Amino acid sequence: MNRTDRLLAIVLELQSRGKLRAEDLAKIFGVTKRTIYRDILALCGAGVAIDSIPGKGYSILDGYFLPPLSFTQDEATMLILGSDFVAQNFDSQYCNAAFSASKKIEAVLSKQLKHEVEYLKKSIRFVSMTQNNNEELMNVLRLIRRAIIEKKVIKFRYYKRTLEKSEPTEREVNPLALVHLGGNWLIAGYCHLRKEIRSFRLNRMESLAVTDKIFIRPPDFRMEQLEEDDSPKIQVKVFADKSIIRWINEFKPYRFVNQQKNKNGFVLTFEVDNESQIFPWILSWGSKIKILSPHSLKQLHKQEAEKLLKEYK
């Protein structure tokens, strides 16, 4: 890395990590502390607002922004495509911000790079099932986004999907994350009713309101925690006819465990929180899928088949 690149990289490190000592920077860039001292002096001489606290390290003063940067083709393309994705999937406020950011990035590109990025932009599309003209959804997203930023508890009525008719439950949740997954918006947060972090689908919520209650965000919260659910699971085994395995493999539902081939088809194993999660999917394949276990799910399938048969007699 040449000195010019290192000077820019030092600024980026300080902006992203807050405060670093000379020895920290020396280790990151593989140079001596004396070299870092000289680099810091050079940056200060160039007008970069660096604050130095003896024994604690260097930091960038609040409010300082880098002048326009140069981007590689890959960097510029990802930033612009990313802004397009945000524009498609958020409300008008973020849509306008994403559009503005995209224009600013394009403005600093060279003519050749701008042409290449524009070509790729026209050749790549993010297709979303979310309709950003759904005003009700946009209002919900705005409320949740504000609650996450302001650390305010939200309350709503929630419908949990079950095989039997059920009434909604009243929930109070500390919102921690907003996720767009498989065409659906989900919110993750600490549920006061269940006393643990849970995720909720927005399309199953109603009467959403932001309260005046303030919560403290857990310092150790990570998005990865949503995938580390260690609650007891139900293992479901089914036999799938070989004529449908190609279509099943296009999108396996729930937590797929494994797939074993035999002469007539495949044995598929899934893990689910409850039987009602996977039962509609099983029904959608008709006689092409046979439940192997658990026994309770086999009985449920049998009862449903008998009901259907009775309807058509």
In words, what does this structure look like?
By secondary structure, the protein is an alpha+beta fold. It folds into four domains: 58 residues, Arc Repressor Mutant, subunit A, CATH 1.10.10; 51 residues; 78 residues, SH3 type barrels (Roll); 78 residues, 2-Layer Sandwich (Alpha-Beta Plaits). Helix content is 42%, strand content 26%. It has ten helices and eleven strands. The strands form three sheets. It has a five-stranded antiparallel beta sheet with strand order 6-5-4-3-7, with helices on one face. It is elongated and about 90 Å long.
SSE layout and pairing:
Layout: H1 3-17, H2 22-29, H3 33-45, E1 50-53, E2 57-60, H4 73-89, H5 92-107, H6 111-123, H7 135-150, E3 152-158, E4 169-181, E5 184-191, E6 196-201, E7 205-214, E8 234-241, H8 245-250, E9 255-261, E10 265-272, H9 275-284, E11 289-293, H10 295-311
Antiparallel strand pairs: 1-2, 3-4, 3-7, 4-5, 5-6, 8-10, 8-11, 9-10
CATH class of the largest domain: Mainly Beta
Radius of gyration: 27 Å
Tally of discrete structural domains: 4
Point out poorly predicted stretches: none
Keywords:
single chain; 313 residues; alpha+beta; Arc Repressor Mutant, subunit A; SH3 type barrels; 4 domains; 5-stranded antiparallel beta sheet; 4-stranded antiparallel beta sheet; 10 helices; 42% helix; elongated
